[in-house]
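Reminder: ligand-aware prediction takes two inputs, not one.
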Amino acid sequence: MKPFNFVTGSVLPDLKNRLFLWSFLIMVSLICGAYFVGYSFTAKEYKQRLARWGLIYSMPDTKPSACERQCWPTGSEALPEGIVAKTSNLEMRPLWDSGIKSRISKRPSNLLAIAVGVKQKEIVNRIVEKFPSSDFVVMLFHYDGFLDGWKNLAWSNHAIHVSAINQTKWWFSKRFLHPDIVAGYNYIFLWDEDLLVDNFDPKRYLSIVKEEGLEISQPALDPGKSELHHPLTVRQTGSKVHRRYYKFKGSGRCDDHSTAPPCIGWVEMMAPVFSKKSWQCVWHLIQNDLIHSWGLDRQLGYCAQGDRMRNVGVVDSEYIVHLGLPTLGSSNGNEGLSNSSDRDSDRPKVRMQSYNEMKVFEKRWREAAKMDKCWIDPYQQQQQINQTSL
Ligand SMILES: *[C@@H]1O[C@H](CO)[C@@H](O)[C@H](O)[C@H]1NC(C)=O
Ligand SMILES: *[C@@H]1O[C@H](CO)[C@@H](O)[C@H](O)[C@H]1NC(C)=O
Ligand SMILES: *[C@@H]1O[C@H](CO)[C@@H](O)[C@H](O)[C@H]1NC(C)=O
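Here is what comes back for the chain with 2-acetamido-2-deoxy-beta-D-glucopyranose:
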């Protein structure tokens, strides 16, 4: 077969024609480039306009192709594909095959991770005992370094223990719950240590969460016994699940028209439960240096895998008590350190730090949203609706 050689072939043999052809090609590519840029601009504009009119509602799933993120090289390119193990898990392996493995029919498909200090051992024991080991891997983040204190608990040898002094739940989860490590778990419970679970059953909870399509959720807080920080998470008696709350008086009203946090579309940070997909997103949202993660909760809706008004919610029928202990393992807004003799001097400092981190986080978000020309805020139109109705 004779190849058709357009540039160097015999069609345009002389130099002058070749130069002409090159400038022609360059011009065509310039025009293409301009068209491409124009297209991506108008596509975004068009989409935003549609969003404003309320014609498109869900997360933007198609972006102009100029905005497609590059596939980063992962380091595995030098290996044959079939040998590449991209993800891992927290399964403990026997040193040799004793035949036990083959008798275990099922691997746990969910994960319970708690930041703990030995002082809360009894409470944590009661939490872990509620979570059947056939369904849950247990991971403890020890912030006080007292690992030995846990040894006598029946489940302790089967749990993963991670120790780092004076670190928070968010510090640990950023370092040890990378999405590639926990890819095998369908739901991740990232809990504080100061929760009572007398009225909570994890399996019933998960069946409700699946039925309701909640990607990010938490059990409701028993108002009689809990330290409460926000009305959204208070248990509504007789209800199975709620996603919004109402406030008809004072500033910051919440009604049926509310479309954004704090009225709807978020949960608090003491007992969140993430689906695998939402965790993949939330892990990226956690900042390495902002270890108290204040402000993160309000942005969780961006990780809800769709409309946060539908996919984020509070389960009322399986509920907990939030003790609000001033420990490092609780995100209760009064975070301090577990040693009560240190508490008085350190708590105000931790609180101040948390507050400052929230300001930094909010600023970072605003700047990131402004700088990323390819990112479209799926909730922008909801804010606009809100502003116009004021
Ligand atoms: C951890 O925090 C406590 C209480 O503030 C403090 O006394 C102790 O020195 C800290 N430990 C380390 C290793 O930073
Ligand atoms: C808009 O926001 C204000 C204040 O945040 C709130 O009181 C109001 O209920 C919201 N309105 C709608 C329609 O969401
Ligand atoms: C708490 O603080 C006291 C006095 O500073 C100290 O003796 C004790 O060992 C500390 N306990 C823990 C668990 O850190």
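The pocket of 2-acetamido-2-deoxy-beta-D-glucopyranose (ligand 3) is lined by residues 339, 341 (CB under 6 Å). DSSP finds ten helices and nine strands in the chain. We will return to this case in the review session.
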